Structures are given as C-alpha cells and as structure tokens.
Amino acid sequence: MSEFARIIENHFSRKRIVIVGDSVADQFLRGTIARVSREAPVFILRHDDTETFPGGAANAAVNVASLGATAVLIGLIGTDSNGEVLLEKLRDAKVDCAYLVSAAHLRTTTKVRVLAGQHYAPRQQVIRIDYENQAETDESLKEKLRANLSRAAENADAIVVSDYNYGVADEKLVELARRISAEKQIPLLIDSRFRLKDFANATTATPNQDEVEQILGGNFSFADCDNLRAQLGLEALLVTRGNKGMLLAEKDRTPLEIKAVGSTEPVDVTGAGDTVIAVYALGLACGLSFADSARLANYAGGIVVMKKGTASVQTAELLAAIKKESKESAVPKK
Q: 3-25+55-107+133-330 belongs to which CATH class?
C-alpha cells in the first residue's frame, strides 16, 4: 500500500476540517432548443430539468465529507427556497451544518448555469445568471459567525477560508481564524477569488494562475510566485494551473512544478478549486508535507475536472487514481 493510500484509508476519517466562507447554490438548468422566437432573434428553450449542488465553501465541505472526514461548514444562508435545497443537499452529503447562520432577509447566493442543446445533442452552457445577496451583513450576524468559528474550531485539525467576496470572510473573522490557527498549531488555508492580498499571514493559499497574474500585473514565473508568497507571509503558495498542473512555492525551498494527472482536456472545471483545497487541507491535517499534500490534491483535481457540473471526489476514485498513476510510472519508458 502506498503512503498516500495508507493516509487516505487510515487517517482521513479521523480529521475534522472547518470550512468558513461563502456558500453558493450552484444550479444547472437544462433545456432543449425548440425553435426561434418570433419576438426576437433568439432561441426558445424548453425546460427539461434543474439540479442544485453545493458550490463555493459548501462544495469544499462536501469534498471533505465525501472522503470520510468530518466537514464543519460556517457561513450565511437565506431561508428562501434555494437555501432550503442547498441545506438539504449538504445534510445528504453528511456535512455538519450546525454552525451555518440563517436569516430571512438574506438571499442565498445562487449561480444558474443554463445548458442548452438540440435533441440527442450534448448540452452546452450558453449563459450564467447570478443571484447575489445584496443585504448588508449586520454586526449581529458577524458576531454569530465569529462565535460559531470559535466553537467549531475547538477540535479542528485545519481551517479553510473559502472567499468568493460575498461578505462572510471579513477582517475580524479572518483575524480570529489566524489566532486559532496559531494557538492550536493547525494549518489555515486560504482560497480567495478576488482578495488574496487581504488574507496575509495564513499557512498557505491556493490561487489559480489567472488570480496570481492579476495580482502581479500579468507576470508569472517561479520567482514571482515565491516573491508573492513572501509578501503575503505564507509558508507555502500553491498555484493551480489547469492542464499545466500546479506550482508550489514553499519557504526556503526551490519552487516545485507538479504535472497534471489524467487527461489534459477537462470536461468541466466548475468547482475544481474547491476540491483541491479540500484535499490539500486533509493532507496537511494528516501531517503530510506541503509538497505531498499538493500532489494528493493534484490527483483529486484531475478526477473532478472530468465530471460535469459541480462535483466531489470519492475515496474509491482517489485511491484508484493513485494506484493507476503508480503503475504507469513504474513501467519503464521505451
């Protein structure tokens, strides 16, 4: 049994990962193109079905739970119909939702992806419609979030901040996460879509290459990434690069390039970053190095991008991917 397989089978189920951030209802509306409208030069789409999946921080939590660990989710959710569906999906996935804060005046952030196609043809995304919460996150809600983080993290093995800029991860909440991480000597991981520079002095972060280039003004090199890691006060910076794999910039080490595993033609990258940080966090919580945790997350990312829609990775899939890669790497090259 490989070391990765041993860790997954014997240690993942013992770990408690706290995920705090913006939970999203990812909806996929599928329809069949019926005809062209007489009112305007647009297609008329006949609705077939709509599915809702946990997205954002909720997707990271589902990925932790799907690998047998305890996933504790902290965030805000509305009492609307999308919030109810999202909550049901999370509970079905065995995510601990006891620390979610709900309020009637909040709208559950929802991303509707419209997938259209003709009869017997694959559905393709034609538009995405975002329903964002516009209500102010008042101080009483923020206090509840901080109190819930303090309680939920009492026995935590790692904390993940999943920030999509919808109002959960404010300065005070992140500072509390830093303090808990330092006191308990557990890793604090950051995934921020727009505000990575606001989350300095964590343990590690997982931006994608586009996000890094936006911060650096278009530059991207191993040295640039290591400089950014140092500027942010991180022990390690893990940059995901799609079909180019990953780049790990770690303090006092030469940057490490990790090649992509599996197909270089992904089916759907929706939510892949959530999967990566979930598995990366589990690896670190189990005592793996940054490099080995990144390699393990790389396997998971290679699996999830071959699935349609927002998806998670199962234990059997991850073990099978590791086993397959080990066999292929053991075959001598001709």
A: alpha beta
